[in-house]
Amino acid sequence: MFFGGFGMNSWMIILVIILVAENLSYYLYTPGALLALVLSVPGVLIAITFHEYAHAWMADRLGDDTPRREGRLSLNPLKHMDPVGIAMLLIAGFGWGRPVQINPNNFNRTISLRKGNALVAFAGPAMNFIIAIIFSIIYGLLLAFTGVYLFTESGFVVNSIILSIITMNVGLGVFNLIPLPPLDGSRILVAFLPTNARNWMESHEKILYLVFIILWITPIASLIIRPAINFINLGLLNLIRWIVSLAI
Q: Which of 67, 135, 192, 209 could pair covalently with 56 via S-S, beta carbons 3.0-4.6 A apart?
């Protein structure tokens, strides 16, 4: 079983190339967009690396040493990067890492396979939200105690990188909670469904996968997850404001 990514056949790769090409023109011809793209690289690396590491860590904690044996219990970005997924996250705003392989049969017998799978699935998005909170706190502290530094030339770079890290992690976390295969949300949902509904989802996985692809290549996915992203961003903004207010 794999977590944190999905396989791509030839027609999907062609589709990804088209999407990247369309978005790339924006970065090439919009002033400042290319610089913003470069400054978003740390955010992409952190978001994907910690997301995949969390999947591996949770599986390891539950008794499955498959990720450890395959070198995925690591914070080395090279262990988790999928070139196409990174390109999509950078250019199109959504992407993925190299899937973490696990064997649920190795889980401790104190937990059911379904619950174990759900915990491994949830670990990825949860880690993204934790990273977003941590960097929101850092951002609030910088605003509170460094004065006008973030408005200097070097401060602009720091400011852009931190905001990118927050944005990428929130986006990746919410996107992966969509309850459609192959995303983490589908594995979490299955753990709580009654038997008939779970069997239906499993027997119609290919159709649901197709639904996901349609959502993915149209603005529908963005419309679905945008309210959740805005809600989380508002909470993080209030956290930043609260930290700044403590210093006043």
A: 67
148, burial (CB in 10 Å: exposed 0-12, middle 13-18, buried 19+): exposed
Give the whole-number percent of the chain exceeding pLDDT 90: 49
* Residue in the block written with tokens 């196409």: 84
Local structure of residue 3 (DSSP, 8 states) = E
Give the C-alpha separation, 248 to 244, whole Å: 7
Query: Rounded distance, CA 84 to CA 19, Å?
Result: 11
2 in helix, strand or coil?
Answer: strand
User: Rounded distance, CA 18 to CA 86, Å?
Assistant: 15
pTM of the entire predicted model:
0.87
User: Per the omega criterion (within 30 degrees of 0), is the bond before 182 cis?
Assistant: yes
The string of DSSP codes covering 87-145 is HHHHHTS----PPEE--GGGS-TTS-HHHHHHHHHHHHHHHHHHHHHHHHHHHHHHHHH
Residues designated as active site: 52
Are the C-beta atoms of 172 and 130 separated by less than 8 Å? no
